[in-house]
Write the structure tokens for this entry.
Amino acid sequence: MPDRIPTEEQLAREERATRWAAAAFGVAIIAGLGLLVLYLAGGDTQWEGVLLFLAFSGVGLGLGVWVRVVIGPEEVIEDRHPMQSPDEDRAIFEQEFAASLGEAQVGGRRRFLLRMLGGVGASIGLAVAAPLLSLGPIFSRDSRNELFVTDWSRNRRLVTPEGEPLRPEDVLVGQLVTVFPDGAGRPADAQAVLIGTNREQLDMAAFPDADGVVDGLVCYSKICTHAGCPVGLYRAAVGELLCPCHQSTFDVNAGARVLSGPAGRALPQLPIGVDDEGYLVALGDFSEPVGPSFWNLTQQPEGDA
Amino acid sequence: MSSTPVRQSPVDGLAKWLDSRLGLAQGSRRYLRKAFPAHWSFLVGEVALFSLIVLLFTGTFLSLFYSPDTTPVVYDGPYVPLQGQEISAAYDSVLRLSFEVRAGLLMRQIHHWAALIFVAAIVVHMLRVFFTGAFRRPRELNWVIGVGLLLLAFGAGFTGYSLPDDLLSGNGLRIGYSALLSIPFLGPLLGFIGIGGEYPGVGVLGRLHVMHVMLIPAGLLGLLGAHMAILIRQKHTQKPSPKATNTNVVGEPLFPNQTLTSLSLFAFVIAVLSLLGGLFEINPVWLYGPYEPFQVFAPSQPDWYMGWLEGLLRLWPAWEWTILGVTIPSVFIPAVVIPGIIFTIVFAWPWIEVRWITKDTSEHHIAQRPRDVPMRTAIGVAGLTFLAVIFVAGSNDVLASNTATGLQTVTMLLRIAVFVLPPLAGVATLRIAASLHAGDERAAADAAAATTEAVEPT
Amino acid sequence: MPAFRVLARRAGLVALAVAATGALTLTAAATEAGSEAPEFDPDLVSLGNQLFQANCATCHGDGAEGLVSPDPSGGPSLIGVGAASVDFMLRTGRMPMTNQFDRLARSTPKFDATERAAIVAFVTSLAPGEGPGIPDISGYEGASLARGLEQFTTNCAACHGPTAAGVAVGQRDVSSDLGITEPIEIAEAIRSGPGVMPVFGEDVLTQEDLEAVVAWVVDLRDREQPGGLSIGRSGPVSEGMVAWVVGLGLLGVVMYLLGDKAGDTGHGHDVEEDERA
């Protein structure tokens, strides 16, 4: 091995380094024991982190000093050959292959059998992969409609997340309330925002259903039509609903049309009215499919809306 | 190995015992003296490897306490603000792990920090490989495997981020589902298969859990094994030097130098991750509250390595078309098409470069300097600039708050920047690299240095 | 600091008491629950009137009826906004503004407790009983944190963030950092909806909810951090920065020290390489 003759200076340096490495290992040992004691005594996230750091940086430092200074740099030179096999090896392999499975031996039968094997792979592969479809409800008729409908229906009351029904006067101008259909739990696709606006600021022509607005109260799907986050950020003074995820901004006073940001379509409107007892109810389902768009959004399969 | 007389120790005894049964000493000369180029930048990949090992160990610990169950339970643990609230069993198990399991919070935090560092180290490692041309023949295959590893790391991160079932993770999952749903013709089908029905689906956590603790780690370990096996077969690239040629490897021996160096680095990786895990709060899910599909908060960001995708979604304009009854949703292009294009280019880069830039198909083992191939370096810098802009856009709200600039103004500026900055950075890089390269060539000619190394001028 | 808080809170209660127990009888139908037909102290109202004319009338008009835009200094009408709104604006120094083009933002309050009570009395006397009154949250310290967290997440977190730190919510608006607000200010803001903030009426967000939200926001400030340093509490953004700067930074130093570097004297070839370059 290396024919380097250590000088006095080098020897002294290695001696010092050995002591340093030993000290580092010593710290690691103490920290390790400390960690164990700390854990048994009840533990503490911060101190455990610090002790783990001390223990392992002690190990790292010791090993580092050991390799960089005590052992010192060393150089080896290894040969490297081209990755490609030498020509004669290739030739031998090709010859052996041809002798066993090659065209010359097996002839046209080989090609036929290979094709059949390919067919086997495709057929069994598809059949074996097909049960993955069981992961989703895609075979029932209902599932085809699921993206188009929610639990809202005519005369269904609007209730708060806690289940309280609402009268029009409960909602002030500039107030936003998240509402769900009464008695349905809190289905994610039915979430809607009920907002009190200044009646005179509403642009009625922009609403899909102008009759579905009660006295300045408007109701929209709470699911962003962009990527589906709840559109919960309401800038009351300017009548803007903003999605906190990607900042699509919707104009509450004009049918929730998109003012800025990446959403491609307005929030669907939930037409609302008031029932005999004075509570707010839906007049039907949303004006369009809710949530992020999908390819056949405009072609609802036959069935009720 | 050492010239000083050695005292017989149990280790030597064990070595002799093993050799007499396995015949290890024969190969040791060949393997233990294998040369490892020792430049420090070659260690970045090892940081990724060691982070992964930490992830596997901490993750195993976590999985023994986590339950991927969305059944509602009433929380009665020590965290007062959630006592009496109905939460999912999954969120409950994360809270118990954090507050009641000794060392549980430390493990959780180390795991999360290790994930962030894991991806960061992969990215830096990849940049080193890219800018020094270390992906050229014969290493194209390992480049492709490496990019696959990066994708799996994204997958591991995303599925893990979603498991605690807190409010931040729930909305991340929601966005992922929307991206899937946006694919023309297949979207609703894939979405339903993916999460078991219309959002929020059925048993999503169970599926994510299986992917996170089984499928993705299996894929990671498999690809990693292939990555390392190919590395050993092909040997490292090395920095240019008078000794280093295309037909040798100059470096430190595997044993003891490289082994001890790696072990030392491993220890330091654990040390740094422990320090972060112990002292820096990460993903405090107890503050975010349980996931309810109608709740959200701002700012909502994904972990850093998803920031570029988030930024694309934030920057993309509201373009949504319906052609012949087929709607192209506005998330489809930024969430599916553009990432697809980016990764296709990255995967195919070794071949793209040969075809259009270097036209060089020969074998290379000497690392290039970035200036040696100005066009590659320029394209790389331009691409990085693009990624940097969209990455920043992923935090446009935080940026707007911290710079007292309007939110829409920030978005508008970034929309301009994404078109202007990458070409500018690319052209500037091209000129600088080309002039440095020309300077090198002149100097080399003046010195008339007869170097044998293979530096490929374009 | 606690002494200051107690003082400020006491001042708020004094203002409330003064506004509610005046001598002047200005009866009006109470349209809002919570603001019982108030009576006003004429001296207080007249002091308020003077202060209003001197500090507020330039933008809001002599009778607080608001100036019509496009007058550049046009401020909104204050008739019927309620005591909570006026008290909040003055208490947090948002009003009076020095420049009407400024963003509505917290600054040093200009008026002491009495002056503030006077202005509140004057403005409320213009439309007695209308608008939300100053809420009474004296019971918030015993409120349920669980309910507070739930209501906060439903109603507040979308703009103020999970830790109430505030974030940009639009072109000119940044939601307030609630870490520095007085409890009464939080309650007043919830009821009156200052700036672009929505209002939360009593029929939906009950008195109990209100106190619970205040309790949670206050609790959030001093909540211990079992995970360590909270690093700004802005979520994955600051976490990513720490991972890169602290994590990869430290490991970068380690790698640099462990590996070979250009100019390393340990290896001959590096030195030669440097000479060549």
In short: The first strand of chain B starts at residue 35 and ends at 36. The radius of gyration of chain B is 26 Å. DSSP finds 16 helices and six strands in chain B. Chain B touches chain C through 82 residues (CB under 8 Å).
